[in-house]
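User: I've been going back and forth on whether these two constructs are worth ordering. Before I decide, could you fold them both?

Assistant: Sure. I'll take them in the order you sent them. The first construct and its structure tokens:
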Amino acid sequence: MSLRDSLGRVATDLRVSLTDRCNLRCSYCMPAEGLAWLPREEILTDDEVVRLVRIAVTRLGVNEVRLTGGEPTVRPRLVDIVARLADLRPRPQLSMTTNGTSLVRMAPALRAAGLDRVNVSLDTLRNDRYLALTHRDRLGDAQAGLAAAAATGMAPVKVNAVLVRGVNDDEAASLLRWCLQRGYFLRFIEQMPLDPQHSWDRGAMVTGAEILARLRSEFTLSLLPGRGSAPAELFTVDGGWGTVGVIGSVTAPFCAACDRVRLTADGQVRSCLFAREETDLRTPMRAGADDAQLAALWARAVRGKRAGHGIDGPAFVQPARPMSAIGG
């Protein structure tokens, strides 16, 4: 059995949200006062997370697992969860998307437990802008976390950046230069309609084309062929070893080659980041469903995956859950 949809796409990359909570308040993700968190009894337990990932890996063909949030490092016993997932056979590739503020403390233990790599969200190099974007004075912690991850041997260490018009959209080149100097791989991501306020404005979004134009004013970029199912278009920089990626989820969607599926912190399967439908695995699991039954439910959920997210279509409706509750 595999996670094959009706269009022949096969999901092998599982994004597992461990929590909807976060220690930052990024303006494009959640309001400064935070959100109403999921009740703790609705969150999957450690055993339930491991069981569902095991089913995905051993029965459904998943070979990459990315831990997300919210902010995954606020999840209790995160290191133990990583170790248990690394013990699965066949062993999946394990990565994590994080804001990096806890990595100075946690990176060595996470690496020892089996975490292969990290993506760290970092949108600015200026303290005042970081504070304005996140409502927390943690830029130094995030930068130190990146260095700590690299020091453990996690590779590649990637940086995810969202440019917000009128806030940090003049930092594309400086962010790239900073990452190249430190051996990090930078990926710019278009701001997506996943904010809880539902105030996203396509016209205010900094597009992938704009980002490339700003980079090309200071660097020579050459497109790398063979993108496959990767979300980012990759470019070499000035003919050297370094690369930069642009994820144009809105203006240049990669839906036709998408190989992702998501599991929310409360045990719901989402076949697309922008899906408005979910399939509940937590309730049948807690009611006694066996692994085969859960795998069948999961496969059925993916079979109904839509052809694309349809953001530019007149019928597009933003999903009710914000990004922090879905998991990147």
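The second construct, handled the same way:
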Amino acid sequence: MNSLHDQLAAYIRQGVIPPYQYSYPPRSTYRPLEEGAWDVHDVWARDLEAYQVPELNLYLHVPFCRYKCGFCNLYTVISTDEDLYDAYTDALCTQIRDHAEIIQARRLRTVYIGGGTPALLSTRHFEQIFTTLTEIYPNWRSTVEEVAVEATPDSIVADPDGFSRLLEMGLTRANIGIQSLVPKEIREAGRGQAGEDVIRQAVSIVQERGLPDLSTDLIMGFTGQTPETWRHSVDELARLAPTTISTYFLTVRPDAWFSKTGSYQYMWKPELYDRYDYAREVFTEHGYVQEGSVRYKKPGRGGYVQKVLTFHGVPLLGLGVGARSYTSVLDYMTGSVKPSMAEVADYIAQAKEHRLRPTTGFALTPEEIVRKRLVLDSFDLDLSELDRFGLDKIADEVGAVLDAAESNGLIHRVGPRRIQLTPKGFKYRDILSWMFYSDHVKNLDREYYEGLHNANMRAKKNMGTPVRITGITTAGESA
């Protein structure tokens, strides 16, 4: 047995739980960009040159929430101010128009409105956003395969007629954060509402109104969660029959409130993989198929098109405060990376004056483009697609990892150069994905999270040090 095989086998045997790999390089590797060094239109023009089939995912970020979950490290602020919503929507639409040429040069595949809780916006705000898209891309409703919005159960229940209007405007998928069907678990996790009846009402509303794809989630590892309460959540959600279900391991990251205060002790042990196994068994028995390492879908109905396309290398344009953009040239954010009302106000002012520029990010080399696909897209990947980016330069390293994955039962070899994950590979995909990280990305990630941990430790002496898998902290990205 070679050492890489043994290393991978040891991680699996130990039940190591890395962060969910949904982006590469992760946000932790972004660093301030030299002022004026990167022009958005030049970045996207260079990206267009790299791809023979020009396609685009569009992500629009709405940062507002009614409450802040204790484990959340996303770009969110607490506000229910309608005047602020008006000003923010104006700014977002201005930014959409400023990127018209970038959008028009590609086939628009998906539109995802995330947050935050975008469902807090009024119908008129969504009408304004969709009207702006129509101005610059008249047939977007015909070309786009998925129009999605994030919501909370209480936001759906509070305005079911508004949700119906969204369906009339072309909504095809709603992501409703459930996390648990055990009220005590989500109350203690900082959720502002925890009633199972509210969740059932929300699911009933969207299903009765004919939403094509209802996407929900469950989280493994809440404090006080037991195998019995986990089975309850899984069984009840399977009975509710949403078209898409995601299951995540809970990770409280150093920039989340619970980490800063040290007030929440959650489970992060190998036994969580038993909960993964139970969920997979139940959901497959109920007719779901596994789309990704965390996601199950009803065939022909469910799924997460934007995520799948992004993993396949289709670039993503992120607009709104705190949004990230993914290209083959530069992954970047505009404005601040730390959410605050002051930063939201600054975003609104800069958008109005057309002054938004990339401020922090990670410049991709051809090698990192190859690694990005390997990290994200091992579910079903033809390696020949990576040849033009220089796979041959790291072929020995990649081949060794793939050989170790195959000998540990994580991948199938399909045809000359295609790889696909096995069921075991789906389960341990995040461990395998980490093994494709470059040393540069590992070092940047370590530096970022050590800095956050040290700051937390100075504030709270009882905070421990980060757990690592050979350099990558387990405090990774959000799902």
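Notes on the second construct follow. The longest strand covers residues 107-115. The CA atoms of residues 35 and 108 lie 30 Å apart.
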